[in-house]
């Protein structure tokens, strides 16, 4: 009898593995949470895109208001496509801050001129320094920062109108 | 007009092949159960018919490629009118749909040949084997027809030209690597079918093991060559000189290889000694199951791999179903029908039986380790425990010491005897080998390399520890013969196969150890006139040019290489290509291969003002990696040619049947175990 | 529609394989071979966060370049390997470590192979002991005689 049970083990092992494989089918291996989730927005001290004389730091993001921080670049086609959705979010009264990621000042300003500017202010990050601190590995990426400057939500890649409805707005509401 | 119909003919042929496969999988099996010879006789013609129609379908797809029929979606995505004809031919299997069709063709082919070369097997056994193979064929043909139809049309708007074959795949390595690999994967279906047939029929004796062994060896040899080719292809095509990445896809091919190796060894025990029966059956099932699992992992997109085919969840689901039914059912049959009472054949601590037992356990541990590392990120993700990566450092940290541990027993296995070996005899045969291995292993890196390296010394010791006892064995076996030549001739091919296979392992180990530790790499900025010195060679860039290939533009550097202290020089021509149709840049490595070292130059980026980043590498003994693989495969094939397998084609040998009883005076004959 | 699909597939494959090939060929200066060795092994054991499955040392992705720069800078700064890895994990997550850390969730990953070696050793011991007894029990006088012949022959060889 025990021998029969032993002979059943391979089958049981395989069935166990199959359950995981089945679950694996519905997982997206590319979808990963940011390592900074539930942590403070990194410390920084940088100039703005609009005004090379104006310096901003972390206090910009811990001022009692929920903020969406969007990492964008002129070189990134997805960023251009998601601008209408970002403008829509700004119209809803959500505070938006941009990070002009790996661009020249000229190109960054041109981008805002051409595609609109939903951002209260844009942090100028030509070398991707702040991006690196945020663990950004491509643009666009969007972070939701709560009133105390803690990162609460992270969206990798293009934000569609549906993403706005289904993820962004509920998250904003949750932390307000 | 007829030409325009080719894809439809192919599609139709697939449907007919499916019908053949269905009949093949049902009627002979029922015949065997009900003892109806006529039904059982369906096996042969159905297997042949199925093979014929899958071959027609395959030929139809190939024709569509050759004729640039871009109205076929598959051709439009993977070919281009500028593509040279041989790449059009191989582009057929450079994509998901075509490669599954090739899989099916091979599956049907193995089935057909299994029928042809098993005329002397009991009729009911053949019927069951062919039925089981037919069922696997049904699964794959359905998979093609339902989810992966290669004949899908783009009508009425067909593109002017195709999107071109991925430039990475435009290479001789790709022409050869997948077919070999698939031949291996699919080849294990035969021994799998033998195992299931034996379980159903309740017939499992030494004769069974003897039938199964040649098929196992052949499939294993193909898989070995396939893996070696894949490694070689990655080495020169990916442009940075790596030869094994522990990528999920590579692991997927390594898994059945490991269990297949274990299977070959346990079949030896089952044939010679009549023991390990259930274990052998389980390994046969596991090996083919892991081949299927590999297919699932590669094509379902559950794992991130550099090689993943563009994937689609419905396909993943279908393969998972296929996998679940095939493997689940087989393991269920195994659990219900595996021999209830094990035939306890006695053996001692130092017997060959015990060595092979250890070999099997070690190979299984290696298999589990690789499987665990491969699917672990998936398991954690499914349990919502976050995303992690398991990569080369993990695999190396476990695989290398485990392999070395196995080598310890590999040195003792071939010279030990069935049933028991006296420790005195073993020590007498081994002490010299051990001493020489240690001395040479320590000394060789000291003499030939600039710096001594412990891993290299250990690698050489392990290799010598495998090879030297075999030499001693050869000496022992020939010294009583009238002449050495006569003595060598008396040894069976199976014995030579084992020797060659083990020699291959030793050669690969040396290659791995040396190239991993003595590899030299320099990344330099070079413009015309600059030179760099690496490992006693001076590389001078003498010219920068551009050229146009059939479907690409290339920047080409001319590098003159001179060995220090030698007047002769040669040139190497690395290229940076831009493939036009896809706008994709590619590095074309310049290689100077040699038995003891490769020189490897890859062109990086244009750094401006006519200078380029160049990667120059000196890779000692890298060829040994693949040479070892070829030797292993040759060993497997050589053992198949042994006369006792040919004898089986005429009549079952009463003496051989008796072999299963175990205690046989000739137990010490020179026999293959590997 | 078909054309759009075609284009999409083209872009997809391009994205997937486009980054696969040799990258990271760049010129870096090291005064110290040990430093160079550390740089190599660090960049080989950190995974590019955006590629399919590549270490940062052979990927052309911009983020891999940034990460290599950071590794280089921190090495020049005299930081320890551990610090550098932690630095990356803090920003990009545990995902970038090809060598997963031993922690609760990876316990099985590291423990199972070790456990299997132990279990395998025990198994071999049990099986061989059982089989030895089997052979001692089974041997008849005739078989023992044959065994004797066998052993003698083995010695004479």
From TrEMBL, chain A:
Q: How does it sit in the membrane?
A: Single-pass membrane protein
**Where is this protein chiefly located?**
membrane
> Where, per UniProt, does this protein localize?
Cell inner membrane
CDD domains, sorted: TlpA_like_DsbE (cd03010)
Q: Which family does it belong to?
A: Belongs to the thioredoxin family. DsbE subfamily.
Keyword line: Cytochrome c-type biogenesis, Disulfide bond, Redox-active center
The record places domain Thioredoxin at 21-173
**Alphabetized InterPro entries for the sequence:** Periplasmic_diS_OxRdtase_DsbE (IPR004799), Redoxin (IPR013740), Thioredoxin-like_sf (IPR036249), Thioredoxin_domain (IPR013766), Thioredoxin_ResA/DsbE_sf (IPR050553)
Gene source species:
Billgrantia aerodenitrificans
Name listed for the protein in its UniProt record:
DsbE family thiol:disulfide interchange protein
UniProtKB/TrEMBL annotation, chain B:
Cytochrome c-type biogenesis protein CcmF C-terminal domain location is: 320-643
Q: Which UniProt keywords apply?
A: Cell inner membrane, Cell membrane, Cytochrome c-type biogenesis, Lyase, Membrane, Transmembrane, Transmembrane helix
Q: What is this protein called?
A: Heme lyase CcmF/NrfE family subunit
The role this protein plays is: Required for the biogenesis of c-type cytochromes. Possible subunit of a heme lyase.
Annotated membrane topology is: Multi-pass membrane protein
Upper taxonomic lineage: Bacteria, Pseudomonadati, Pseudomonadota, Gammaproteobacteria, Oceanospirillales
Q: Please report the organism this UniProt entry assigns to the protein.
A: Billgrantia aerodenitrificans
Give the matching InterPro entries.
CcmF_C, Cyt_c_assembly, Cyt_c_biogenesis, Cyt_c_biogenesis_CcmF
The similarity comment for this entry is: Belongs to the CcmF/CycK/Ccl1/NrfE/CcsA family.
Region (Disordered) residue spans: 651-674
Source taxon at top rank? Bacteria
UniProtKB/TrEMBL annotation, chain C:
In terms of InterPro entries, this protein maps to: C-type_cytochrome_biogenesis, CcmH/CycL/Ccl2/NrfF_N, CcmH/CycL/NrfF/Ccl2_sf
Q: What does this protein do?
A: Possible subunit of a heme lyase.
Q: According to its UniProt record, which protein family does this protein belong to? A: Belongs to the CcmH/CycL/Ccl2/NrfF family.
Is the Membrane keyword given for this protein? yes
CcmH/CycL/Ccl2/NrfF N-terminal domain: from which residue to which, for each copy? Answer: 13-150
Any transmembrane segments, and where? 107-128
This protein's name: Cytochrome c-type biogenesis protein
User: In which domain of life is the source organism classified?
Assistant: Bacteria
- Keyword vocabulary terms for this entry: Cytochrome c-type biogenesis, Heme, Iron, Membrane, Metal-binding, Signal, Transmembrane, Transmembrane helix
């Amino acid at each position: 009898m025990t021998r029969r049970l032993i002979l059943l083990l391979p089958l049981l092992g395989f069935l166990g593995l199959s359950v995981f494989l089945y679950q694996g089918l519905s997982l997206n291996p590319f979808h990963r949470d940011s390592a900074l989730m539930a942590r403070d927005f990194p410390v920084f001290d940088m100039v703005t895109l609009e005004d090379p004389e104006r310096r901003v730091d972390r206090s910009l993001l811990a001022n009692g208001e929920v903020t969406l921080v969007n990492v964008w670049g002129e070189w990134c086609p997805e960023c251009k496509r998601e601008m209408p959705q970002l403008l829509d979010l700004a119209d809803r009264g959500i505070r938006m801050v941009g990070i002009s990621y790996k661009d020249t000042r000229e190109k960054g300003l041109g981008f805002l001129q051409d595609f609109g500017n939903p951002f209260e202010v844009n942090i100028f990050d030509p070398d991707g320094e702040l991006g690196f601190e945020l663990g950004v590995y491509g643009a666009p990426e969007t972070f939701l920062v709560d009133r105390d400057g803690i990162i609460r939500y992270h969206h990798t890649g293009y934000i569609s109108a549906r993403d706005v409805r289904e993820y962004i707005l509920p998250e904003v509401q949750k932390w307000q | 007009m007829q030409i325009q119909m080719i894809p439809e003919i192919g599609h139709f042929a697939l449907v007919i092949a499916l019908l053949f496969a269905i009949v093949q999988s049902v009627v002979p099996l029922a015949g065997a159960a009900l003892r109806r010879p006529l039904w059982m006789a369906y096996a042969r013609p159905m297997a042949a018919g199925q093979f014929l129609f899958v071959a027609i379908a395959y030929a139809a797809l190939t024709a569509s490629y050759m004729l640039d029929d871009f109205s076929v979606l598959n051709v439009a995505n993977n070919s281009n009118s500028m593509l040279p004809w041989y790449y059009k031919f191989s582009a057929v299997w450079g994509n998901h749909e075509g490669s599954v069709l090739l899989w099916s063709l091979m599956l049907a082919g193995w089935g057909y040949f299994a029928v042809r070369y098993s005329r002397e097997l009991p009729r009911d056994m053949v019927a069951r084997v062919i039925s089981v193979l037919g069922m696997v064929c049904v699964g794959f043909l359905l998979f093609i027809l339902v989810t992966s139809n290669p004949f899908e049309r783009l009508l009425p708007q067909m593109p002017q030209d195709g999107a071109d074959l991925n430039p990475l795949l435009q290479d001789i390595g790709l022409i050869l690597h997948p077919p070999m690999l698939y031949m291996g994967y699919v080849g294990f279906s035969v021994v799998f079918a033998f195992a299931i047939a034996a379980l159903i029929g309740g017939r499992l004796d030494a004769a069974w093991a003897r039938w199964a062994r040649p098929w196992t060896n052949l499939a294993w040899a193909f898989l070995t060559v396939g893996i070696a080719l894949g490694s070689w292809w990655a080495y020169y095509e990916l442009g940075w000189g790596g030869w094994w990445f522990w990528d999920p896809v590579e692991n997927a091919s390594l898994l059945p290889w490991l269990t297949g190796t274990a299977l070959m060894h346990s079949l030896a025990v089952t044939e010679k000694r009549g023991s390990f029966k259930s274990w052998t059956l389980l390994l046969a099932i596991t090996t083919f199951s892991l081949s299927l699992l590999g297919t699932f992992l590669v094509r379902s997109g559950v794992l991130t791999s550099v090689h993943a085919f563009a994937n689609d969840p419905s396909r993943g689901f279908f393969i998972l179903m296929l996998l679940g039914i095939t493997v689940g059912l087989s393991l269920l049959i195994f659990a219900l029908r595996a021999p209830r009472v094990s035939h306890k054949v006695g053996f001692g601590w130092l017997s060959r039986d015990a060595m092979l037992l250890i070999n099997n356990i070690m190979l299984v541990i290696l298999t589990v380790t690789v499987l665990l590392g491969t699917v672990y990120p998936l398991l954690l993700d499914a349990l919502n425990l976050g995303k992690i990566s398991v990569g080369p450092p993990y695999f190396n940290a476990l695989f290398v010491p485990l392999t070395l541990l196995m080598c310890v027993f590999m040195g003792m296995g071939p010279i030990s005897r069935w049933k028991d070996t006296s420790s005195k005899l073993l020590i007498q045969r081994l002490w010299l080998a051990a001493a020489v291995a240690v001395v040479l292993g320590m000394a060789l890196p000291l003499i030939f390399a600039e710096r001594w390296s412990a891993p290299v010394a250990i690698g050489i010791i392990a290799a010598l520890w495998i090879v030297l006892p075999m030499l001693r064995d050869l000496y022992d076996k020939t010294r009583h013969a009238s002449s050495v030549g006569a003595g060598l001739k008396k040894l069976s091919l199976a014995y030579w196969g084992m020797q060659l296979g083990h020699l291959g392992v030793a050669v690969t180990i040396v290659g791995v150890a040396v190239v991993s530790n003595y590899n030299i790499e320099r990344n330099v900025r070079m413009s015309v006139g600059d030179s760099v010195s690496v490992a006693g060679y001076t590389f001078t860039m003498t010219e920068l040019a551009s050229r146009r290939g059939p479907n690409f533009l290339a920047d080409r550097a001319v590098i003159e290489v001179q060995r220090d202290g030698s007047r002769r020089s040669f040139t190497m021509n690395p290229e940076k290509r831009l493939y036009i149709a896809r706008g994709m840049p590619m590095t074309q490595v310049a290689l100077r291969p040699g038995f003891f070292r490769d020189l490897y130059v890859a062109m990086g980026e244009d750094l401006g003002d006519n200078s380029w980043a160049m990667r120059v590498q000196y890779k000692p003994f890298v060829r040994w990696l693949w040479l070892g693989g070829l030797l292993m495969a040759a060993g497997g094939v050589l053992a198949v040619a042994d006369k006792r397998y040919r004898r089986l084609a005429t009549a079952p040998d009463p003496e051989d049947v008796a072999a299963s009883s175990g205690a046989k005076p000739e137990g010490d004959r020179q026999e293959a175990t590997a | 529609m078909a054309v759009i699909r075609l284009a999409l597939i083209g872009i997809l494959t391009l994205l997937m394989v486009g980054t696969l090939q040799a990258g990271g060929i760049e010129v870096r200066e090291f005064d110290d071979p040990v430093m160079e060795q550390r740089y190599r092994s660090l960049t080989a054991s950190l995974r590019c966060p955006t590629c399919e499955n590549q270490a940062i040392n052979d990927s052309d992705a911009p983020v891999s370049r940034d990460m290599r720069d950071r590794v280089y800078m921190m090495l020049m700064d005299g930081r320890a390997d551990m610090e550098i890895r932690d630095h990356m994990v803090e920003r990009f997550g545990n995902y970038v470590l090809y060598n997963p850390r031993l922690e609760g969730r990876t316990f099985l990953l590291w423990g199972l192979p070790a456990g299997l070696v132990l279990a395998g050793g025990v198994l071999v011991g049990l099986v061989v002991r059982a089989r030895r007894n089997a052979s001692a029990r089974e041997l008849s006088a005739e078989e023992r005689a044959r065994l004797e012949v066998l052993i003698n022959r083995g010695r004479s060889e």
